[in-house]
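Notes from the 1:1 (GR / supervisor)

We went over the backlog. Supervisor wanted to see one worked example end to end before approving the batch request, so GR pasted a single chain during the call. The sequence is below; no edits were made to it. Supervisor asked that the structure be written out right there so they could see what the output format looks like.
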Amino acid sequence: MMELSLHTSALTQPFADAIAEAEKIIGEAPHITCEQDLIEGYEYLAGSIRAAMQFAFAYERDFPYFVQSTGPYMKMGLDNPDTLYYSANLRDDAEYVVSGVRGSAADLSFQVLNGDYTPSEVPDSMAAFDDRAIQINPDGSYELRFGPPRADGGPNYFPLGARSSQIVVREVFSDWNTEQQGRIRIQRVDRIGAAPVPPTAKLMVKRYDAAAKMLLSRIRTFLAFPEWFFRGQELNTMNEPRLTPGGLASQYSSAGRYELPDGQVMVVTVPASDAPYQGIQLGSNWYVSLDYINHQTSLTADQANVDPDGKIRFVVSERDPGLANWLEQTGHTRGIVQIRWQRVSRELGAADGPEVEVMGFDELPQRLPFYEQSTRNAADYTARIAARQVAVANRMLS
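Structure output shown during the call:
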């Protein structure tokens, strides 16, 4: 038997050291005030470890493939419960073909980035568009090309700018029960039918070292994001709709931080939009989504109850108010609330955005318009959770 040229502990030591350092960062996070915060931090760390290993070992620009960027056990960046995120690596001097079949999701968008998110900056968007910008065949199939600028590229050819490094695809679902997932793949054009060279000892060292750097960067980056986005913003408020940072072509968002002592609730009132996708979610101070599988911590316009005046009234509460649009805090007295609009066809302004009121739990029947029309019973709620569990299982195999 051939003797290995690498000592295993030496090979993995950088990643082991990074895990230890990441654990220290988690344990010293400034927002930790209780044991639940710390436990969730260690859960977040586990998902980040998994993600770092996946992205380091899936880093392949000559034989790329799409990997799922987030999921129920690999969360980051206030992940949207309604979105499947895919990413693949690129070279800016090569040509790639992205082939797929458009499913029936509310939105399908593409973005080319020139780097990764860091604690100090969001990567520039080299290109960003949704599927309204491409030609799709009658059967739903499509083929896109990404490569160096050229005059004869055609309608589905998108030039890669200098330093283009990654393509991100978002498939967004508004009705979890009926909308169907599409298919997608990526190939480097001049490598189709070929095969990469076998991995070497040098490559293994590089992969583990890259995973170590990715892990620490990921932890530090998204711990910094809430302060970036909400610096100077009062608690229990949400900002006006604005284009989402990062260059997404047709996405607006409104967000804020909530803090609700026992017995208080937040009512978020927003007009039902004409955009194909409108959704609200709660997140923790780790800047990740709350449990959206087993609890109603997010709702889309299709899932929510729209009042007769055309507005949606969401109730953020720890206790069950017996209302269809209840967003469960799941023990989080402090956290993040965000609304997204996607595939918009016009600019959004203050009139499209949310109004926020904080009130006592017992005040809801008197102060909430159309309260009686919004009620639901325990059986309705159980059915809703069962449907969420099935829908996530169907689309988020992990």
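Supervisor's comment: The CA atoms of residues 281 and 298 lie 4 Å apart.
Batch request approved.
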